[in-house]
Amino acid sequence: ALSPEEQAFQDRIDAGERIEPRDWMPEGYRKTLIRQIGQHAHSEIVGQLPEGNWITRAPTLERKAILLAKVQDEAGHGLYLYSAAETLGESRDEMTQKLLDGRMKYSSIFNYPTLTWADIGAIGWLVDGAAIMNQVPLQRTSYGPYARAMVRICKEESFHQRQGYHIMMKMARGTDAQREMAQDALNRFWYPSLMMFGPSDKESVHSAQNMAWKIKINTNDELRQKFVDQTVPQAEFLGLTVPDETLCWNEEKGGYDFAEPDWNEFFEVLKGNGPCNAERIGARQKAWDDGAWFRDGLSAYADKQQARRMA
Ligand code: 3HC
């Protein structure tokens, strides 16, 4: 049974009220939000790595400028989200340390390699497309700082998706070699994109509680279905084939029936056995180590300023 405070809190949630940092909240609400917002922030920062790989290899100056802008946006998304998580009492340094020692996750999708330029199109179209599907409802999540961060992030995400789809249009209508690269990218990113929505609802450990607290507005399977229903016509418009022979329109459910991702692969990637896990964490560890002198300099300067003020 809920304590009087927990009941009062739940009544506020059920009334659609926003919870702010200084409000009373159950410890479980605080912990699950630090977990989700922190991992969301880690996803934005680690997500810069696969795309960053192509900034120096972009086919034109225009594409290079667009990709630079997108990767820079992702860094900003990470900072908004770390700031939202910090309002719950966990510092960015603590969350970073947990990422580096495997106690916090980042989205599985970023453990797959970007082998060709078409992958940059597929990431914008599918990965940012899936991120938008998941982030739009999060604008209405019950925790104020998280919901407000989402409003700004969703505006920038739509640019990310448009530029990716434009790359796919260019290549799907290009030479045979370009069209084959676009199809190959769709083949490799389709199922990992479906995994971004999380395990199936029956496997999801946090969904029930997070739906009750209106942290999660739609279930994992609902958003995955919406993503498939929106994306299949876009693939058809490109003249590309979704790599799922079982895919077919189901009139009575008003959506596509489709094959689920390989959940063994999903849980393997979460355990750290994906194609690029070690490389991604290695890059973040190096960034942390290489930045130590700069952080020390900043704190030394801040201490000196503080000492001057106290003198
Ligand atoms: N990758 C890594 N871990 C995942 C995952 C994925 N695709 N899907 C689920 N998990 C983890 C969960 O974190 C949880 O593990 P934990 O207890 O150690 O945190 C476990 O698998 C069970 O999954 P649940 O469904 O029970 O967990 P959630 O209720 O948290 O649902 C979620 C998972 C839908 C990803 C939810 O956390 C969420 O909506 N997060 C916010 C959005 C987000 O993080 N998106 C990631 C991509 S961000 C991005 O793509 C940036 C864009 O700019 C490209």
TrEMBL record:
InterPro entries registered for this protein in UniProt: Aromatic_CoA_ox/epox (IPR052703), Ferritin-like (IPR012347), Ferritin-like_SF (IPR009078), PaaA (IPR011881), PaaA_PaaC (IPR007814)
Entry annotated with the keyword Membrane: no
Keyword vocabulary terms for this entry: Oxidoreductase
UniProt enzyme class: oxidoreductase
Superkingdom classification of source: Bacteria
Molecular functions (GO terms): phenylacetyl-CoA 1,2-epoxidase activity
The EC number(s) this enzyme carries: 1.14.13.149
Pfam families in the cross-refs: PaaA_PaaC
UniProt protein name: 1,2-phenylacetyl-CoA epoxidase subunit A
Organism field: Thalassococcus lentus
